[in-house]
């Protein structure tokens, strides 16, 4: 069975980015992103009410990592590693089947700069080589064309379209599942 037993948080680097652990100092930026309706347009989650909720959320990331349940990175530019510009990570890890769901968000000031693509490439490689995942999936709103396109660019295939399987704010919404198999398996 798959396990996530890292002795310390795996900081990843790309040409322009540092992917690091969440810190409480990221709370204000994360709160701003999670309450920004442009960022959250296709992320069907309740918005945080205050910074304390976000601080608890960050603590849950770090506890989840310590328990081997999830792995969530802050996306930061190398030129300013303390400033969060986005986040991405693995959630809902299915240990028995070596599968994890990947999710990401980015502050709108950094959209269309290739940042998510660069971070995604690094974390996909890490997921397959270091976490020993057999497959990675992403749950996407059928209306989120940008997210669909970035997943397709990285080799993901649409596996399913679920009709009205998610209830949020008084309506039933569709979701699409995209998947990527480990080419080394």
From TrEMBL:
PROSITE patterns membership: GNAT
GO terms, molecular function: acyltransferase activity, transferring groups other than amino-acyl groups
Alphabetical list of Gene3D superfamilies matching this protein: 3.40.630.30
Keywords of this entry: Transferase
Pfam families reported for this sequence: Acetyltransf_3 (PF13302)
CDD domains: NAT_SF
Domain N-acetyltransferase: 17-174
InterPro entries linked to this entry: Acyl_CoA_acyltransferase, GNAT_dom, N-acetyltransferase
PANTHER family linked to this entry: GNAT FAMILY, PUTATIVE (AFU_ORTHOLOGUE AFUA_3G00765)-RELATED-RELATED, N-ACETYLTRANSFERASE DOMAIN-CONTAINING PROTEIN
UniProt name for this protein: GNAT family N-acetyltransferase
């Amino acid at each position: 069975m798959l396990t996530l037993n890292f002795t310390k948080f795996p900081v990843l680097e790309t040409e322009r980015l540092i992917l690091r652990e969440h810190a409480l100092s990221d709370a204000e930026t994360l709160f701003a992103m999670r309450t920004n309706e442009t960022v959250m347009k296709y992320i069907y989650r309740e918005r945080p009410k205050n910074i304390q909720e976000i601080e608890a959320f960050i603590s849950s990331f770090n506890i989840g990592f310590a328990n081997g349940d999830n792995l969530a990175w802050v996306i930061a530019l190398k030129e300013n590693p303390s400033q969060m510009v986005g986040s991405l990570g693995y959630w809902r890890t299915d240990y028995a089947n070596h599968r994890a769901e990947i999710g990401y968000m980015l502050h709108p000031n950094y959209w269309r700069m290739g940042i998510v693509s660069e971070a995604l490439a690094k974390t996909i490689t890490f997921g397959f080589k270091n976490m020993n995942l057999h497959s990675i999936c992403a749950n996407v709103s059928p209306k989120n064309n940008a997210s669909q396109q970035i997943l397709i660019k990285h080799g993901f295939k649409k596996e399913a379209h679920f009709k009205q399987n998610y209830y949020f704010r008084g309506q039933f919404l569709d979701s699409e599942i995209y998947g990527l198999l480990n080419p080394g398996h």
